[in-house]
Amino acid sequence: MDAYTPTRGDRFTFGLWTVGNRGSDPFGGPVRDHIDPCEIVRNLAECGAFGVNLHDNDLVPLGKSQKERDTIVSNFKRALSENDMVVPMATTNLFSHPVFKDGAFTSNDPRVRAFALQKTMDGIDLGVELGAKLYVFWGGREGTEADACRDVRTAIERMREAMNFLTGYVKANGYDLRFALEAKPNEPRSENYFPTTGHMLHFISTLADEEMVGVNPEVAHEVMSGLSFPHAVGQAMEAGKLFHIDLNSQKIGRYDQDLRFGSEDPRQAFLLVRLLEGTGGGEPYRGPLHFDAHAYRSEDEQGVWEFARGNMRTYKILKAKARAFDSDPEVCELLRCHEDPELEALWQAGYDSKRAQSLRQIDLKPDEVARIGLRYERLDQLMMEHIFGVR
Ligand code: GLT
Ligand code: MN
Ligand code: MN
Questions:
Q1: Domain for residue 2, yes or no?
Q2: Is 17 a pocket residue for ligand 1 (Cβ < 6 Å)?
Q3: Active-site residue among 55, 244, 294, 386?
Q4: Which of 1, 35, 145, 255 has the fewest CB atoms nearer than 10 Å to its CB?
Q5: Domain annotation covers residue 1
Q6: How many domains would you assign to the chain?
Q7: How many angstroms separate the alpha carbon of residue 138 from the centre of ligand 1?
Q8: Which residue range forms the structural domain that includes residue 373?
Q9: Domain match, 56 and 195 both
Q10: Are 341 and 259 contained in the same domain?
Q11: pLDDT tens readout for residues 81-90
């Protein structure tokens, strides 16, 4: 037990599919046994997690009768309450069944879209029954290889129809549930629709119940495209749309690696934690901190629980480092804001011709301003020294 040992108050969660991942990849089968969901709950609780998330079929395999479903769910609920664990988020598996080979909500076949809606309404009922307040949509199969098969605009329109229908379902049932949409550029499809968090944010602004819908950005998914994850998250936070987050780690340009949080990218992970915790200013993120990662294929079950602890410890270590960085007097001095309220008022108060005229008349001496060194080399080195633990 040390300062980085996770506790319930840290709000760390894992998907059943993350620690339950059996290590299959496209070139080899499973290397670990199936772990019963109730067993996962017990182990995660022991590791210090706060909750567990699930797809409908992570808990209730496809094809179970209503009676079997109810038994599974009531055993799972008992495991949750015995271990003081919650289910903050649930989602639907709209990718494993062969019927989803060409998408779920965007499929050209209306029967597939109808099945996706059926499955999602059932999944929502299950999530709500378990106490979930968030419902994630990851459109794993919403994409193409033969891009001529449908107009992108049709795909977007179909996705909108589905979201509008499903927010309608939630409202009609009086559920206290919000949606979080998760982007990914490719894999398993050659091209996925809504490839980045930015694409999702715009799409959300076109929905009938846009206030109920936010994003669930995942580190790996943004990094696959070579984009800055902290920038994507920052934009979502600024828009009030960061409803949930999938933490893991990833090298640029590869398949979705879902590595242990912070393991490949301590610098970006530091900047992310700093942003989420608000140590550098701004409102912190207060939702669950979900690790959507899995252990290396080299691991047995013991390695899985070490992996689980590792994610949470790294987050807490980075949180302590972010606090130390933002209270370092030299850092504060370097970050001191150069404010000039009188000057800024000329545009911040909005356009009017008088203010525009005044703005035009000021001699801003750009050549002089340009000569001022910004000392970002020093700032960045200080940040690295905090990360390295020598400051
Ligand atoms: C799958 C995917 C994740 C999604 C999960 C939710 S399933 O593991 O790779 O990124 O968040 O559907
Ligand atoms: Mn994810
Ligand atoms: Mn992923």
A1: no
A2: yes
A3: 55
A4: 1
A5: no
A6: 2
A7: 6
A8: 329-388
A9: yes
A10: no
A11: 999 999 999 9
Helix boundaries (H) for the chain: 16-19, 37-47, 56-59, 66-82, 110-129, 152-172, 197-204, 219-224, 229-238, 266-277, 301-326, 329-335, 341-348, 353-361, 366-370, 376-388
Q: Could you identify the residue written with the tokens 């899985």?
A: 304
Q: For the chain, state the CA radius of gyration.
A: 23
What is the DSSP code (8-state) at residue 180? Answer: E
Distance 92 CA to ligand 1 centre (A): 10
pLDDT digits (tens, 9 = 90+) for 113-165: 999 999 999 999 999 999 999 999 999 999 999 999 999 999 999 999 999 99
**Can 122 be counted among the known catalytic residues?**
no
Handedness of CA 206, 209, 214, 215 (dihedral sign): negative
- pTM tops 0.85, yes or no: yes
Ligand nearest to the backbone CA of 136 = 1
User: What is the 281 CA–ligand 1 centroid distance (Å)?
Assistant: 31
Which residue has tokens 């390695």? 303
Which of 241, 231, 243, 307 is CA-nearest to residue 272? 231
- Does the annotation mark 58 as catalytic? yes
